[in-house]
Amino acid sequence: MRTLNVNLGERSYPIYIGQNVLADSHCFLPYIKGRKAAIVTNETIAPLYLQRLIDSLPGKDVTSIVLPDGEAYKNWEVLQTIFDALLRDRHDRSTTLIALGGGVVGDMTGFAAACYQRGVAFIQVPTTLLSQVDSSVGGKTGINHPLGKNMIGAFYQPKSVVIDTSVLKTLPEKELSAGLAEVIKYGLICDEPFLVWLEEHIERLRHVDPESLIEAIERSCAAKADVVGTDEREAGLRAILNLGHTFGHAIESHQGYGAWLHGEAVAAGTAMALDMSCRLGWLSEAQRQRALRLLIRAGLPIAPPGEMTPDDFMKYMAIDKKVLDGQLRLVLLKQLGEAVVTSDFPYNILKDTLSADYQALAEQLGD
Ligand code: NAD
Ligand code: GLY
């Protein structure tokens, strides 16, 4: 088992990474102070892993809360059912919530923990690659609003993050690729040597090779922990973790939550950020194509939905959380391995990026 630390003073916490750590009580019991705990999961994951987790909590009085599966359920109504179950089973402030699932379960459980009785402890047990490398670390929690992704939420850190790589064996291939979008993101924004490593290991990752996965997850979590440790509440640096997300969230909101996987939307959004970085003269065409080829080899789309117009993008991008004082800020690349957050770009360059023909490029690069 490998252990990393997210350094946030008194809110610091460990990230445990390894095969079969789900069955290791030592990863859980020290972080559950009271007698009661509640596992929040969904109807897909429950039959696969719920009992294994319950078995790792000997002596605890456990409530299981099984949500419907899907991004479309990351909303107020479903959040309320978590509170219903906690109150029904008389969970008090000493309880601990445990999120067993992907980013949807993790974000909702974290938000429920932040709100329930003004805040109770929670543990993240991420079961998708995307949640293992990104959403379970850093304390962003929340739900969607029909008008915008993740618009209602709180910064609220878990007590620990337990990453069992063996659960990735049951993850659908498309979901694994979606997770790779966020892994590749770390290489693009802050770690060019990791990008080289990914170019060498992408096939092994897609074949769920345990050693390669552990390495990729550890390097991704280490990068995220570094950024979060410096800028927990996104006063500045943390925004670089949103490479491709402003365009990607617009795709998700426009298409209807769940129609595009988050990681797929991030990949197409990253292709748009690469395009704009090229137009601004920061990246060469060769660098852009190198990044796009890696996304394609990871099984990801590099073209946004053909029917989305620049106006469609602008409608959703105008309410992105990186908009400050009405000014749109974008994460772009100064070079491969160096991101910048900027509002200093000519509007016509953004317009050209929003209207570029990505499908043609995808065909040219062999998508
Ligand atoms: P998800 O939670 O919807 O999970 C994807 C699918 O895989 C679901 O159908 C799920 O039931 C299934 N699944 C999960 N684990 C499985 C397993 N081991 N075996 C078989 N099936 C499994 O999607 P996701 O990609 O994990 O997360 C996306 C969400 O995360 C979005 O809502 C996004 O906004 C959020 N997110 C949050 C942050 C953050 O910092 N908080 C960062 C990135 C993404
Ligand atoms: N996923 C972006 C962040 O955690 O800041």
From TrEMBL:
NAD(+) binds at residues 69-74, 103-107, 127-128, 140, 149. Zn(2+) binds at residues 182, 245, 262. Binds 1 divalent metal cation per subunit. Can use either Co(2+) or Zn(2+). It catalyses: 7-phospho-2-dehydro-3-deoxy-D-arabino-heptonate = 3-dehydroquinate + phosphate. SUPFAM superfamilies: Dehydroquinate synthase-like. CDD domains: DHQS. Its cofactor is NAD(+); Co(2+); Zn(2+). Pathway: Metabolic intermediate biosynthesis; chorismate biosynthesis; chorismate from D-erythrose 4-phosphate and phosphoenolpyruvate: step 2/7. GO terms for biological process: amino acid biosynthetic process; aromatic amino acid family biosynthetic process; chorismate biosynthetic process. Residues 65-177 form the 3-dehydroquinate synthase N-terminal domain. Residues 179-323 form the 3-dehydroquinate synthase C-terminal domain. Keywords: Amino-acid biosynthesis, Aromatic amino acid biosynthesis, Cobalt, Cytoplasm, Lyase, Metal-binding, NAD, Nucleotide-binding, Zinc. One of its GO terms (molecular function) is nucleotide binding. Catalyzes the conversion of 3-deoxy-D-arabino-heptulosonate 7-phosphate (DAHP) to dehydroquinate (DHQ). Belongs to the sugar phosphate cyclases superfamily. Dehydroquinate synthase family. This is 3-dehydroquinate synthase.
